[in-house]
Amino acid sequence: MNRLSVGASCRDHPKAEPLHPRGRAPLKRSRILHMALMGTSEASGDAEAEEEKPFLLRALQIALVVSLYWITSISMVFLNKYLLDSPSLRLDTPIFVTFYQCLVTALLCKSLSTLATYCPGAVDFPTLRLDPRVARSVLPLSVVFIGMITFNNLCLKYVGVAFYNVGRSLTTVFNVLLSYLLLKQTTSFYALLACGIIIGGFWLGVDQEGAEGTLSWVGTLFGILASLCVSLNAIYTKKVLPAVDGSIWRLTFYNNVNACVLFLPLLLLLGELRALCNFPQLGSSHFWGMMTLGGLFGFAIGYVTGLQIKFTSPLTHNVSGTAKACAQTVLAVLHYEETKSFLWWTSNMMVLGGSFAYTWVRGWEMKKTQEEPSPKEEKNSMGV
């Protein structure tokens, strides 16, 4: 369950662009993201110090960060699958599992904030105070956030880990669609072609799951809704960030606090609290240990995602996520000892290939836009 990637995985994360204020040197993307994560507003000499590090040291750092992201993300998916749909656990309370993970994340944020206050040299974390007015401002995003993490978990509950990536593969397509409908932003032909490949891979995957008798239409529907919520989460995050002073960690804290409050009536209405009371392993330390570990992974995925973007770039992060999804699919097939057809594998390659192609095209277009001078700059240069 991609969470912060609020969002995000979420999960989608805000992408930082180079700034060019007059009279100041442009900031690196990694530094801007670090400022957003830590809630700071001014750059220091960290970015310059990063460039001075030896090549081998920087390469080792990048390798370790990418490995940490892969291990955290893949482990979280397999752990959530165990909590949501394990035959040995037999726990049919997906909303409670999601609620508990939000609770753990909120408590971790508050604990780190308190630790940073009393030990400023040991922990670098923004100060968190629960302000009802800010909580109300974040509430629209929190509703979308709840939909995102809930539909993610419900999709994982009803489909296999191997199909999970394909079931949630339409996020890019919804990004393009919502950008046009809400922001009136058009998309290039090559980017639309990449989206077409993703859609084709999705439908082929659904067809092959049906042919093998393992298709869950409910799980597929939840995957589509999760993809939609991930796209909406990215849009609403940009609107709400000013209310939390641009700090991703403050937004994470308010999102999870709001989610805990909003989940309570759902637990009562859906009867999950009653089902939990009748759960035979309710007093098991193993059960609560796995639940808490799931919450820790949910918190950690937001941190390692930001860390990977900081040490690489948003484009490299997307490529790494695509490669991770491929490795996750292969591991799932091997772990559950499944046999898949050639067309089933083709559907996965189409989804992954389309996602990679879209990331590359958008990165190339952004680079081209940055390199081209604006009409105003052209006019000034001609005047000179």
UniProtKB/TrEMBL annotation:
Could you tell me which residue ranges the Sugar phosphate transporter domain spans?
61-358
State the annotated membrane topology for this chain.
Answer: Multi-pass membrane protein
Region span, Disordered: 1-23
Gene Ontology cellular-component terms listed: membrane
Q: Where in the cell is it found?
A: Membrane
Per the record, where are the segments of Basic and acidic residues compositional bias?
Answer: 10-20
Q: What is its main location?
A: membrane
Report keywords, A-Z: Membrane, Transmembrane, Transmembrane helix
Membrane spanning stretches:
62-83, 95-118, 138-156, 163-183, 189-206, 218-236, 256-275, 287-309, 342-361
Superkingdom of the organism of origin: Eukaryota
* Keyword Ubl conjugation listed: no
- Please indicate if the UniProt record lists Transmembrane helix as a keyword: yes
Q: Where is the signal peptide?
A: none
Question: What is its biological role?
Answer: Putative transporter.
* Family, per entry: Belongs to the TPT transporter family. SLC35E subfamily.
PANTHER family associated with the record = SOLUTE CARRIER FAMILY 35 (PTHR11132)
- Protein name, per record: GDP-fucose transporter 1
Question: Can you name the source organism?
Answer: Galemys pyrenaicus
